[in-house]
Amino acid sequence: MNKRLKKRNCYVIALIVLILFGSACSRNGRKPSWEADVSGISIEKMEIQRFEEVLFNVNPSTLEGSLEPYFEKFSFFIEGSMGNSEAIESLYNFVTDPEIRELFIDTGKRWDDTDAITEPLAHTFRFHRYHFPDIELPEVYTYISGIDYMMPIIYTGDKLVIGLDNFLGSDYALYDRLGIPRYLSRWMRPERLNVEVMLAFADARLSEYAPMPETLLDHIIYHGKRQYFLDNMLPRTHDTLKIAYTATNLEWMRHFEGYAWTYKLDNDLLYTSDHRIINQFTGEAPFTSAFGRDSAPRTGVWLGWQIVREYMRRNPEVDLQKLLSEGDSRKILAGARYRPR
Question: If you placed Cys at 170, which of 153, 186, 209, 311 could pair as Cys (CB 3.0 to 4.6 Å)?
Fold first, then answer.
């Protein structure tokens, strides 16, 4: 195993806390306008239920019997397997696969103490409770997903399930061996975990409050709301981490923001429902193909973020819930009076 992966948990905690609570460089250490005062907000004591420690430490030859005592606690993971011979066989193949077991071992070393998860997550949950006081916080579980990097977080409302093997560090050797594109694997690191959790929360809140987007403008504003949700939940996290941009991506976007916006206007793209065009500007990619290989990816996401930020700046009476429930993307665009240079 790569020796660089043998970093102590104190380093992980320190890095996450630095990202969460350190001053955002883009705001020169000033308190962001969207940061709420959560000093008086309390949440229930958080306990992390680690399913991977149960699954990979029982006898794989007697899986069904060995897991039975844990059925009530981890029914979310195993209820479809109990009494199902094919499912048990599939589970056996999973836990005895050498690469999967390697993931379990390395995950245990990287995340050997749940404090690395609970401390930053609890702080983030306080911001969520401030903005959504009527929504109960979920039970939190971890597991080995087999590197399901397209869905590292599962949030069902009452349960939050974290695939810890998706956050082992950008230099984790198995990511390269499996052929995960570098523009994705560079963000599969511990300090991104809270961002992914809050993106899952953002999607859940948006599905409750607003219709699904249809046009490119709808998608731009939808993603802008997601990013502004991150602003409110992770107010001191740097923009690069929230949008998964390198410093070079951020520099390009700030320099060409006006061009990226007028390109959509000049080509009458804002109201297209063509999913190929929508994905070109909002989908995961190493760059935005319309602007060349040196461009930032997901330029539509960045533009939507700046539009929503400007809309909220100009409309201080609108709170986060009202923003998420506003289904008229044209109203938000008009209210932002967005004029990038």
Answer: 186
From CA 254, how far away is CA 171, in angstroms rounded?
28
* Tens-place pLDDT, residues 225-271: 999 999 999 999 999 999 999 999 999 999 999 999 999 999 999 99
Q: In 10 A of CB 86, how many CB atoms?
A: 8
Strand pairing category for 159-163 and 153-155:
antiparallel
> CA end-to-end span of the chain, whole Å?
49
Q: Which residue has the tokens 């052929």?
A: 179
Residue 24: burial class (beta carbons within 10 Å; 0-12, 13-18, 19+): buried
Q: What is the enclosing helix (H) or strand (E) of 160?
A: strand 159-163
Q: Of 19, 12, 92, nearest to 60 (Cα)?
A: 92
* Nearest-angstrom CA–CA distance, 335 and 341: 18
Going from N- to C-terminal start, the domains of the chain cover: 3-192, 205-336
The CA-atom distances, in angstroms, between 107 and each of 100, 142, 174 are 10, 11, 12
